[in-house]
C-alpha cells in the first residue's frame, strides 16, 4: 500500500517539476525573447511556486494536527481502560474476593 502512495507522490512531484520548468524562460519551447513576456512568465512561475509551497505547508500542518488528535484519542482510550481495571480491583476488594 505504501508503494502505491509513494509512486503517486513521485508522479505528482515530477508533474509539478515539469510544470515549473515550463515557466523558466530557458527551458520552455517559446523562443520569443520579449522582456514583457519573460517578466510575466517569471511572475507567474513565482506565484505558482508560492501557491504550491503553501498547499504543501497546509497539507503537512493538517497531517501533523491529525496525528496529534490520534495520539490524544489513543491516550484517552488508554486512560479509560486503566480506569476500568482500577474499578474492577476496587470491586474485588469490596466483595472480599482477594484483591
Question: What do you see in this structure?
Answer:
The chain crosses the membrane at residues 44-66. It comes from Hibiscus syriacus (Rose of Sharon). This is WD repeat-containing protein 82-B-like isoform X1. Keywords: Membrane, Transmembrane, Transmembrane helix. The model has no long low-confidence stretch (mean pLDDT 78). This protein has helices spanning 2-22, 35-95. The chain is built from 2 helices and no strands. With 99 residues, the protein is mainly α. It starts with a helix and ends with a helix.
Write a concise keyword list for the protein shown above.
99 residues, 0% strand, rod-shaped
List the helices and strands and how they pair.
Elements lengths: L1 H21 L12 H61 L4
Keywords: Membrane, Transmembrane, Transmembrane helix
Protein name: WD repeat-containing protein 82-B-like isoform X1
Record field, number of beta strands:
0
Return the structural class.
mainly alpha
**What is the 3D form?**
rod-shaped
Indicate the multimeric state: single chain
Output the number of helix runs: 2
Structure in a nutshell:
The protein is mostly helical. Helix content is 83%, strand content 0%.
